[in-house]
Amino acid sequence: MLLNRPVPFSFLLGKIKYETLAVFVFANLMFTLRHYVGLEFLSIPLAIPALMGTCISLLLAFRTNQAYERWWEARVVWGGIVNDSRTLIRQLLTFLPEESASARIVQTVAQRQIGWCYVLGQTLRGQPTQPAIKTYIPPTEQAGILGATHQPLAVLQVHADQLRQLYRAGYLTDLQVVQVDATMTRLTDAMGRCERIKNTVFPRTYTFYLQVFIILFTAMLPFGFVENLFFVEVPLVTLIGSAFFLIEKSAIQLQDPFENRPTDTPMTAIAKGIAGSLTQLTGESVVEQPTASPTYFIL
After folding, report:
1. Do the beta carbons of residue 222 and residue 233 sit within 8 Å?
2. DSSP letters for 56-107
3. Residue 36: is it exposed, middle or buried by C-beta count within 10 angstroms (0-12/13-18/19+)?
4. In the list 74, 99, 113, 225, which could disulfide-bond 265, CB 3.0-4.6 Å?
């Protein structure tokens, strides 16, 4: 996620460098043909590219809004994961009897829940999950989770198995089991919503048509300068065309919030915050706090 810090110009230009170069070369070619080759008749009324630019602006606004909604939904889902992770441990601390065995159980569940947050984030980004499993999951449970096809779901199933054991041992009443299970159900729902966002592809035809319209608009723009602006024409065409391409590229990055890019939902940073909260609740001496990012984004 981009932070409230100056974003390097290289980051912005890097997303549209090829498009900017193409527009610059095309604008120079048209400028040469019109002013040095004697093809001044290569012109169209400025109202035509202006009208197309207005239509493209409306489409870009709609596209950016839809992409931001996907990104914001992902952020809301992870906000819910924060709340439900804290609620899960708080419920166990409240419901289980005050004894050393119960404290160890809650600490185990807390560490497993921290591991689940990291494993879910790494799975959504297509990154290795073994380091998180080795760090936070008890050794007796690691083999089953590592061998599972859906590792985050496997971690939640271990949660459920331990909940059943606590209920059969008489540590939890019927009502308490229902409440804890409802919390784990919300965690499962949040995982499913993340997977829906990840696996639902934004309509490719919409992206293709919008890119074609931007290219047509940029191609017509040099012909709309009836006045002789001379050396100002090329910078203007390049700047205006690049602005449209930049907005379109920004929407493309926002629509996929789980791709390990600076515009991602900060799942790793959120997981670190959850780790700090849960270790505080369980009274562990080592509390993992979120680390400040030295760059202009966090992941």
Report:
1. yes
2. HHHHHHHHHHHHHHHHHHHHHHHHHHHHHHHHHHHHHHHHS-SSHHHHHHHH
3. exposed
4. 74
Banded pLDDT at 221 (limits 50, 70, 90): confident
Contact (Cβ atoms closer than 8 angstroms) between residue 129 and residue 147: no
Average pLDDT (60-87) is 92
Is the alpha carbon torsion for 182, 186, 192, 195 positive or negative? negative
Q: What is the three-state SS of 185-235?
A: HHHHHHHHHHHHHHHCCCCHHHHHHHHHHHHHHHHHHHHHCCCCCHHHHHH
Domain ranges of the chain: 76-198+267-284
CA dihedral 262, 268, 270, 272 (to 10 degrees): -140
With a CB cutoff of 8 Å and minimum separation 6, the contacts of 126 are 260
Q: What single DSSP character describes residue 157?
A: H
Is residue 254 within 8 Å of residue 70, measured between CB atoms?
A: yes
Sign (positive/negative) of CA torsion 102, 106, 111, 115? Answer: positive
In this structure, are residues 15 and 249 in contact, taking their beta carbons and an 8 Å threshold?
yes
What is the total residue count of the chain?
299
How far the first Cα of the chain sits from its last, in Å, is 6
Establish how many alpha carbons lie within 13 A of residue 85's alpha carbon, considering only the half-sphere containing its beta carbon.
31
pLDDT digits (tens, 9 = 90+) for 141-183: 999 999 999 999 999 999 999 999 999 988 899 999 999 999 9
Q: Assess contact for 151 and 133: CB atoms under 8 A.
A: yes
Q: For residue 12, with 0-12 CB atoms within 10 Å meaning exposed, 13-18 middle and 19 or more buried, which class applies?
A: middle
Handedness of CA 102, 103, 104, 110 (dihedral sign): positive
In this structure, the number of other CB atoms found within 10 A of the CB of residue 68 comes to 14
Give the three-class secondary structure for 128: coil
